[in-house]
Amino acid sequence: MTVLAESAPSVPVVDPQEAPHAVRPRWVRPALLTLLALTAVLYLWGLGGAGWANDYYAAAVQAGTQSWKALLFGSLDAGNAITVDKPPASLWVMALSGRLFGFGTLSMLVPEALMGVASVALVYGAVRRVSGYGAGLLAGAVLALTPVAALMFRFNNPDALLVLLMVVAGYCLIRALDGKSTRWIALAGVAIGFAFLAKLLQALLVTPALALVVLVAIPGSVWHRLRDLGVGLVAVVVSAGWYLVLVSLWPSDSRPYIGGSTNNSLLQLALGYNGLGRVFGGDGNPGGSSDSGEGGGPGGGMFGGSTGITRMFDASMGTEISWLLPAALIGLVAGLWFTRRAPRTDRTRAALLLWGGWLLATAAVFSFMKGIMHPYYTIALAPAIAAVIGISVRELWRGKQFVLSRVVLAAMLVTTAVWNFILLDRTPEWLPWLRWVVLAGSIVVAAVLLAGGHRLGRWTVVLAAAGLLFGLGATAAYTVETVAGNHNGPIPTSGPARSDGGMGFGGPGGPGGPGGQRASDNAELKVMLAQTDNRWAAATVGSMSASPLELSTGTSIMSIGGFGGGDNSPTLEQFQSYVAAGQVHYFIAGEGPGGGHHGPGGDSGAGTLITKWVQQHFTATDVGGTEVYDLTATN
């Protein structure tokens, strides 16, 4: 990561600012196709081994293949009792794929992997337009080889679509620097609006950087830039707002309850539990901690760990995202310093403001948010880190302040090596030799660079290759290890298994995991459920019981109380009316958390009240070791 191959005398160099329409070198297309092909292989390899990945979203995808209403609203079940606790945009993609190709692991996860490939291509394209082909290829490779990116682009959480749409917005804004800014800024706003429909307020973390570039770097007068900013804002509001309006105007008794909300409102979900509650705590989120090691929520690091400026480097987040974060920060500061006297519309500085602003704003919120902060959220930082690395390395190598530029490049490489040594030491049994090779090799390359790497002639390519090998070696190895393993459950983590966690809430050994697994493996129970023709084959408390049963039987299972059993849906009166109408056949007791551990409801939620009512009015039957109540039987 110290030099780029395009800097060698044998490789033609194209300065995108001086010759934006220059003929593309012959080596570019094969190099780009190779990058994208290898990324596709990496993200698609062994994809079926992930099983259903996150059962919670997989059950919603299955429901979307069975019911168009469930697809529209993101219902957890085909009977449309309650939605997942996110907007449904990511589910639309996976469920439509399931409708086209049949519901299964591959039809669900292949679109996620292809989103990763598309994100790599767009990061390449955005960086290439500013700093050239080599910088674009480097940025694309860095994104592809980020462990948390390889993890989440092979998973069914909303993060894959969120990141792709944010990258689309960044690419559109870079295109706006070339002219026809209004159209491209409008498209960027549309991308952010639909990103909001993937994961709510997290999509808006990049908007300060987008707005800054529009106001500072877009060609034209102040009024032209303000108009463009207004157009972008309107595009965001319209592309996200249409769905909010749809949900608000749709009769509440004719659609599923909005999971995670306290008043059946998607807007309240965005501003409460899954929005500002994540930032400030409350609304079903635990409070954060800045002065203790107990973490920001139940489960410690898997729910955020301690807040503070070092959070992105700590035990839970560091190996997900921070491999190249120190180098990116150094490169960002240096790049902004070297372009401080550039014209207002300078494209390099504009790109650094975009990707650097994205990086700093998102990292700051993630570092200090007091609510739930899962490690995999950090995938949102990956495109920004990748782009800053690609741009800064290229611009420093060709920098006019020759000695200082080389010193900064060497510092980036050595700092990366030292930090990667520390990260690899957190799993000392895994490839123990790698940290020493990366450290020693990086020091040697940095020394050669400082001693006169610019005078190596054709050997500069060898130096560049060595810099890339040692600079990216650790993150690449960790990414390959991530792909080689199987990851599932609500809170996946990348890399090799560690003794300090990584199974996640609800995974094997986690809360609710064994119970839900027993029910879904209960052959006798599954036969009973498959023979029903009710709106809901059964009801049970919480998604950790409901989701595996849905997936193993293909039937509609009502998740009382939503994800953690604490949502007030259905109310006791609603549930009683469903039972009276013969719409729920069985009630399965004893396996959900039952108290809203991961939601806004608390112990007085619907799950507790309904369970008590069922126990008082119906007789339990043991079905293969599972306590089941037949709600169609009269006592």
TrEMBL record:
Name of the protein in question: Glycosyltransferase family 39 protein
UniProtKB keywords: Cell membrane, Glycosyltransferase, Membrane, Transferase, Transmembrane, Transmembrane helix
Skewed-composition ranges (Gly residues): 501-516
Pfam families: PMT_2 (PF13231), YkcB_C (PF24878)
Start and end residues of each stretch annotated as Disordered: 487-520
Occurrences of domain Glycosyltransferase RgtA/B/C/D-like (ranges): 85-239
Membrane spanning stretches: 27-45, 100-127, 133-153, 160-178, 184-217, 229-250, 321-338, 350-369, 375-391, 403-422, 434-452, 459-480
The keyword Membrane belongs to this UniProt entry's keyword annotation: yes
Source organism, top-level taxon: Bacteria
Membrane topology (UniProt): Multi-pass membrane protein
Keyword Membrane attached: yes
Chief location of this protein within or outside the cell: membrane
Localisation per UniProt entry: Cell membrane
Sequence ranges assigned to domain Putative mannosyltransferase YkcA/B-like C-terminal in this UniProt record: 531-617
InterPro entries per the UniProt record, alphabetical: LipidA_mod_glycosyltrf_83, RgtA/B/C-like, YkcA/B-like_C
